[in-house]
Amino acid sequence: MVKLEEKSRDNSIMGMNIKKLRQYFFESDVQDILNVPITGFSGKDELIWSRDGSGLFTVKSAYHLALSHQDIPSTSSVTNSRKFWNKVWHSKAPPKIKHFIWRVVSHTLPVASSLFSRHIIGSPLCSFCKSNSETVHHALLGCSRLKKVWKSSRFVDLYLKFKHLDITDFLLSSFEVLDKEYVGILFCFLWALWNNRNNYLHHKHAIPVNDTFDWSMNYFFQYVDAQQKLQQNRVLAQNLNRESTSASGSYLQVFTDAAIDVRGQKHSYGIVVADESGAVKAGVAKPCIGNIPAVMAEAKAIYHAIFWVQLLHLPVDTLKTDCKTIVDKLNHCNWNASPLDDVLVGIKNLLSFSPNLRIEHVYRESNQLAHWVAKFGLGLDNEVVWNGSLPFI
Q1: Would you give the end-to-end CA distance of the chain in angstroms?
Q2: How far apart (Å, rounded) are the C-alpha atoms in residues 74 and 256?
Q3: What structural domains and CATH numbers belong to the chain?
Q4: Three-class HEC string of 314-377
Q5: Kindly report the CA angle at 299 between 270 and 264, in degrees rounded to 5?
Q6: Which residue ranges does the record assign to the Reverse transcriptase zinc-binding domain (predicted)?
Q7: Which residues contact 360 (CB under 8 A, 6 or more apart)?
Q8: Secondary structure of 26-81 in HEC code, one letter for each residue
Q9: What is the C-alpha to C-alpha distance for residues 393 and 385, in angstroms, rounded to an integer?
């Protein structure tokens, strides 16, 4: 049997041996193999349900799978565009409003036409104008009751120019003419239109027409201001915690991160050791072959960091990562059948040999060094280890 994987010092699988893969397989098969997440730790091969992160079958994930195979109205392939969704997810709008926009684009809002097709209500007509089928486009752009609302807003030119487009193409056009701040306000405005529709249907009250835009803008800026204050408090709390720990005695801390090069079919781990003042003492940049999910790469970076620290007997009491998902799963020990959980079990096993080592979540701005080292590792062919300051600073 041909061994296609490469082992690291801890005898775990680093990644695939790309030379052997290309020796025995066609290039198209090589690309598929490199997309398989390999753990290489304590797990065994078993069938899992790939549509849920737990690896277990759920009715909810099966429903979404069935729904994804239905024909959903769309005039454009933009819904599959990474650039389009980056605009949505990276906007400054609150998370629940981003989720609302996702529902708008995926046509999953409970408009009358959708409820009628599911035999929930008896008519697909709009409850306001009574003359057109209520689609997502009609509920947010097409209904006659919305004209005054749009025309009293700062989006009137956008509305008049693009209201005839499909809702997805309308959003795409707005990305081209609005800055990032106004995109967030537009999302809040659309959400306000939908809430007004629901509040009037069910409670017979809504925001006055002339106040809808101002309400949306105030809602947006209140959220942005709250996020800025929260961020300032987080940084202050981390600085106070660092000063408190520093006063209690010297220690070392480890920061980890991972980077992924999808096109190059590789990923990399960044590991940085720093003292209580933040001065870098040592580090590792470790490139690996294979295109694995980001959370899997983050987990493997933590595993290799712990193993490396234990191998060198470094006096480390804190390991920090900006992946909150991993920290939460390690704290709750809610293992399932997924490849990620296989790695997390390996991390827990290593921690049993270092009972005083804590794994903590930090925000990205406090983990920049490990992030840079992980990015640096993508350009390497082999692992690089160093003492002292970072080699590229």
Answers
A1: 45
A2: 41
A3: 12-41 (no CATH), 91-235 (no CATH), 252-387 (3.30.420.10)
A4: CCEEEEEECCHHHHHHHHHCCCCCCHHHHHHHHHHHHHCCCCCCEEEECCHHHCHHHHHHHHHH
A5: 60
A6: 57-150
A7: 318, 319, 320, 321, 327
A8: CHHHHHHHHCCCCCCCCCCCCCCCCCCCCCCCCHHHHHHHHHHCCCCCCCCHHHHC
A9: 15
pTM for this model (two decimals): 0.53
Distance CA 61, CA 57 (A): 7
**Residues 23 and 45: beta-carbon distance below 8 Å:** no
345 near 239, Cβ under 8 Å?
no
Q: What residue ranges of the chain have pLDDT lower than 70?
A: 1-16, 35-45, 53, 68-80, 234-250, 390-393
3 state DSSP class of 152: coil
Instruction: Give CA–CA dist 51/57, Å, rounded.
Output: 8
Burial class (CB in 10 A: 0-12, 13-18, 19+), 5: middle
The pLDDT value recorded for residue 24 is: 81
Tell the residue number behind the tokens 């997924």, with chain if given. 338
Give Cβ neighbours of residue 137 (< 8 Å, ≥ 6 apart).
166, 167, 170
pLDDT at residue 75 in the model? 43
CB under 8 Å to 190, separation ≥6 — which residues? Answer: 100, 101, 104, 140
Q: What is the pLDDT of residue 13?
A: 43
- 182 alpha carbon, distance to own chain's centre: 23
Q: Which long-range contacts (CB under 8 A, 24 or more apart) does 367-370 make?
A: 367/255, 367/257, 367/320, 367/321, 367/322, 369/255, 369/270, 369/272, 369/274, 369/280, 369/283, 370/255, 370/256, 370/257, 370/270, 370/271, 370/272
Q: Distance between CA 9 and CA 308 in Å, rounded?
A: 9
pLDDT in tens, 9-22: 444 445 567 777 77
Q: Is 248 helix (H, G, I), strand (E, B) or coil?
A: coil
The secondary structure of residue 133, as a DSSP letter, is B
* Cβ contacts of 109 within 8 Å, gap of 6 or more: 103, 136, 139, 194
Two tokens, residue 113: 């036409």
Per-residue model confidence as pLDDT tens digits over 232-258: 776 666 565 555 555 545 579 999 999
Report CA-CA distances (Å) from 266 to 289, 296, 373, 380: 4, 13, 15, 10
Closest Cα partner for 155 from 192, 127, 126, 128?
Answer: 192
Q: Compute the half-sphere exposure of residue 167: CA atoms within 13 Å on the CB side of its CA.
A: 21
